[in-house]
Fold this sequence. Notes:
By secondary structure, the protein is α/β, with parallel strands linked by helices. It folds into 2 domains: 11-248, Aspartate Aminotransferase, domain 2; 251-372, Aspartate Aminotransferase, domain 1 (Alpha-Beta Complex). The protein has 13 helices and 15 strands. Helix 6 links the parallel strand 4 and strand 5. The longest helix has 19 residues, at 251-269. It is globular and about 80 Å long. The mean pLDDT is 97. This is dTDP-4-amino-4,6-dideoxygalactose transaminase. One of its GO terms (molecular function) is transaminase activity. It comes from Paractinoplanes atraurantiacus. InterPro entries: DegT/StrS_aminotransferase, PyrdxlP-dep_Trfase, PyrdxlP-dep_Trfase_major, PyrdxlP-dep_Trfase_small.
Amino acid sequence: MLPYGRQSIDESDAEAVVAALGSDWLTTGPRVAQFEADIEAAAGAPAVTVTNGTTALHTAYAAAGVGAGDEVVTTPMTFVATASTAMMLGAKVIFADIEDDTANIDPAAVESLVTSKTKAIAAVDYAGHPADYDALRKISEGAGAVLIGDAAHSIGSSLNGRPVGSLADLTTFSFFPTKNLTTAEGGAVASIRTDLLERARTFHNVGMVKDPAKLRHPDEGGWFYEVQELGLNYRLPDILCALGSSQLKRLGAFKARRQELTARYDALLADVPGLRLPIQRDGVDPLRHLYPVRVLDGRRREVYDRLREAGIGVQVNYIPVYWHPAFEELGYRRGMCPVAEAFYAEELSLPLFVDLSDADQDRVVEALRTILGS
């Protein structure tokens, strides 16, 4: 089966991991700090590493002070963790509809939903295309809310020359194997605000505070620390950070190949009937995580089944979050976000990964042509 996404691992990655295994530090060591510095160079903001993209979101919401009685406005066109991690902190999630062309959260929809209870606005850079952070920034500042960017798809992308990571107050990343770079499991939280980054760093380290200047009882001894607010152990070990630093050295090459494959899809599929191709807005320089097409005329299920029968892995990204039973049981109902639901009914992610060959991509295109022409 040709996968829809997979990691790209080379000898330099293996050597980096082996070197970490032979060092004195398997976790909480120098490779963590190095990977965080490498992320900052790519993302445009200081970062703290965490165990995966879901814990990155949990950490970001905790750093933003999200809690019981707060509201978080986000998109339904995302993986469930963008919403569920806020709910686990006691917040109520409000779903805003998406833009029809990018599948990103619609600022106009967000603006209509903010209230005095809005603590955070969380955008998602769908498929690697950054959300409209300039418009969202105006809304968040007017509401006194923290702006969060779920950039699980978009490290390496930029908006008007500014890298993803510097666009929101807090930005989260995922380094799952199908993403733009991998640490196997892993993630990070970046922030342009030192106060929020410090809160994220403390939360991901079980809430431990060791700085003598911040201790309530600073004279206990060199071993002493305090937990002043509860946190969790979300630390990413040195072994995985070593892999991440090695992967980041190739981020430029990853981006070039994904852009080349995207351009080939654009050209090869331009005249295929019954397809709507993804767009790229002015000012956006994306590192595409997904190549999402829209299969028209109610044929998405047929195309999905027939491609997979032909050994071509395709995926649907995503089921609207509030369709899941855990949300239905809380009173969320279908029909809330009609643009997102229309997008879901047609979306299909075609294979896109760095090591996808031109020949395999041609195979995907020919299969689509055959199915949609029948």
